[in-house]
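User: Predict the structure for this protein chain, please.
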Amino acid sequence: MTATDPALTALAQGWCALSLLHGRIEAHIERALQAKHDLSVREYSLLDVLSRQHDGEGGHLQMKQVADAVVLSQSATTRLVTRLEDRDLLERYLCPTDRRGIYTNVTEAGLRLLEEARPTNDTALREALDAAARSPELAPLVRVVESLNVPA
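Assistant: Here is the predicted structure, written as structure tokens:
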């Protein structure tokens, strides 16, 4: 395969289109969440992931699992948790069965903010996808995203 190979070029163009779609969506949602709720996309994602925890077996996520879910490094996730904890949106506590483990829960204030921000996030996502669908190079990707039925 050479640098001018049509298959390689098509693959690179597809990746660029996917990256462009992601960037446009994230930027649009970021502006909306910041303007209305003083939340970043990452903060919203973290609150959303942690709000889905439950008390059953395997219901609480370790920091590595949280980092994977919000697509950040463990150190970046820890800094993000600390920022939200400083705003009283999250709280950390020791795992009752393994004192080395630290879990994070969304506080009542965090749950209220998340519920207030969810419609903003959903509307901004829909707006960003609708705008991208008008672009010939992004429309096929939008159709794929809209056809996915992946559990959160």
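The mean pLDDT is 90.
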